Structure formats: C-alpha cells, structure tokens
Amino acid sequence: MALPIPGKPVRGSKSGAPVMALLDLLGRSWAMGIVWHLYKGPSTFRRLQEYCETISPTTLNKRLKELRDSHLIVRTVEGYALTQHGKELYELIEPLGNWAKGWAKNFK
C-alpha cells in the first residue's frame, strides 16, 4: 500500500482530501498506537515492538517509515520521537480517546 498523500487518491477518497489521507495513514495497523506511545517520549525499535505486542518487525519497520515520510516522527539518538506535527496530532486525538472511554461504557 502506498503512502497516503493529500491531493492523491487514498482509501475512502478519490480526491485525497487531507483529512482522508490522514485517516488512511492512521487507520493502518499500529500507526495510531505508535503515535500514542511516542507521546510519552522517544522509544527504541525494541520498546515499540514490545508495546505493540503482536506486530511483526516487517510491519513495524513499514509503519515507522510511513510515519517518518509523513513528518509525524523522526529518528533521534534516543530512538523514534514525535515531530511537532506528531505532537499536535496526538493533542487533537487525545480528547477523542477520552470520549471513546465514555462511549465504551454503553457496551458493558
């Protein structure tokens, strides 16, 4: 699957609306989990692999490349870290996570 790029066709949008490109990227296995984890601070490949539990090294490498190419993470001497765009994204999505916890109570 190619990197979703705003302005190019992406999953769910022939026009590649920026929000649809972002949702395509974040909807890929473990992409959002990696962003969520890195908000706590830089992490090595091995720690990310442990956090993601069932992720294969191939898939983790692919997600890290996609997130780097999308300017959401960078590789540092401490491991992988969120860029300013990545931090801003987390701060926008974090309230959605809180809302989802309340919503999930409807299913208990």
UniProtKB/TrEMBL annotation:
- Which InterPro entries did the record assign? ArsR-like_HTH, HTH_HxlR, WH-like_DNA-bd_sf, WH_DNA-bd_sf
Please list every transmembrane segment annotated in the UniProt record, as residue ranges. Answer: none
Check the record and name the Gene3D superfamilies matching this protein. Winged helix-like DNA-binding domain superfamily/Winged helix DNA-binding domain (1.10.10.10)
Q: Identify the Pfam families for this entry.
A: HxlR (PF01638)
Q: Which top-rank group of organisms is this from?
A: Bacteria
The record's keywords, sorted A to Z, are: DNA-binding, Transcription, Transcription regulation
* Positions of the HTH hxlR-type domain: 17-108
Presence of the UniProt keyword Transcription in the record: yes
Name of the protein described by the UniProt record: Helix-turn-helix transcriptional regulator
